[in-house]
């Protein structure tokens, strides 16, 4: 199958530069440019805009980029499955792990079971894509994702995992409440400078709606998506953040940070397993999704019996 030019195109878009992509691909830059010119000729459209700072896709190039990702993913999955032969469930399964969630810990449990039960299955975890995970599933770039539930979206199924209250997290040096207080009101939160994800993140949308419903102004000091970056700025005492309880406890130690439930009014977020209603599902994808569902059921059972959910899977996302 001749998909080299699509692979080259995706690498250029990801790198934002033909020269950087050429170095990564170990190709001469003129040869790589020639491949892109050939693609543009085939489609009859300009695919890349060249600037002093590098390249970026045109609207047509962005469409090709998304389709190319799906094509290359299917090519890789087919190659793995066919080469493995008839030795049980095999192939390539891609699962999105939403940021600011406990999906990473959840993923470790599932990965361990995949290794034990399906040695011919290659499991890929994605934590960053050019499109949001729900759209990636609709486009066939992902088989499933563990994300915040954004509400009904046509063509997608959301299976709730857990609903959690939103907590405020701040360094101990930042005075956010009176000494001895064990909770914080939304009005008190509105007086703080906050570090939050970008507006397209569902967590940010939940927080925005909560403030709007209460008639309060949201003071966002900076928008930070990587959890590590968020941890650093909060630890430095530059401001506070708002996270679901389990995420707050996972990213921030209760011994080192103030972790307070937000009340009057409270806000909550629901995590869900997202899958496609329409996209065909491979045997490998079906097997992995069933493992995820089994872990969801076990987590709920532990919650119902009052067991501490701190072993294999924390209150989850």
From TrEMBL:
UniProt entry keywords in alphabetical sequence: Activator, DNA-binding, Transcription, Transcription regulation
Transcription regulation among keywords: yes
Annotated Pfam families: HTH_1, LysR_substrate
Keyword DNA-binding: yes
Domain HTH lysR-type residues, every copy: 1-58
Coiled-coil annotated residue ranges, if any: none
Protein family according to the UniProt entry: Belongs to the LysR transcriptional regulatory family.
Record protein name field: LysR family nitrogen assimilation transcriptional regulator
Organism this protein belongs to: Brooklawnia cerclae
């Amino acid at each position: 199958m001749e998909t080299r030019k699509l692979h080259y195109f995706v690498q250029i878009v990801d790198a934002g530069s033909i020269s950087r992509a050429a170095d990564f691909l170990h190709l001469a830059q003129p040869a790589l440019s020639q491949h892109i010119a050939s693609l543009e000729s085939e489609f009859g459209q300009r695919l890349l805009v060249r600037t002093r700072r590098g390249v970026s896709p045109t609207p047509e190039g962005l469409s090709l980029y998304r389709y190319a990702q799906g094509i290359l993913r299917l090519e890789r999955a087919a190659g793995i499955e066919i080469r493995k032969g008839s030795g049980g469930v095999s192939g390539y399964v891609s699962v999105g792990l939403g940021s600011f969630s406990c999906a990473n810990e959840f993923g470790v449990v599932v990965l361990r079971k995949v290794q034990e039960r399906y040695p011919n299955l290659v499991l890929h975890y994605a934590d960053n894509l050019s499109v949001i995970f729900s759209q990636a599933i609709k486009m066939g770039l992902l088989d499933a994702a563990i994300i915040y539930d954004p509400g009904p979206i046509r063509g997608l199924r959301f299976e709730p995992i857990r609903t959690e209250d939103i907590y405020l997290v701040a360094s101990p040096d930042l005075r956010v409440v009176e000494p001895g207080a064990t909770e914080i009101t939304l009005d008190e939160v509105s007086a703080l400078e906050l570090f939050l994800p970008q507006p397209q993140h569902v967590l940010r949308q939940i927080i925005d709606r909560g403030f709007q419903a209460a008639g309060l102004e949201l003071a966002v000091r900076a928008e930070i998506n990587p959890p590590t970056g968020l941890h650093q700025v909060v630890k430095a005492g530059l401001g506070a953040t708002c996270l679901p309880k389990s995420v707050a406890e996972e990213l921030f130690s209760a011994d080192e940070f103030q972790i307070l439930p937000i009340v009057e009014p409270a806000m909550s977020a629901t995590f869900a397993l997202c899958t496609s209603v329409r996209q065909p599902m491979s045997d490998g994808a079906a097997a992995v999704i069933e493992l995820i569902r089994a872990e969801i059921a076990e987590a709920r059972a532990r919650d119902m019996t009052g067991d501490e959910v701190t072993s294999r899977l924390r209150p989850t996302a």
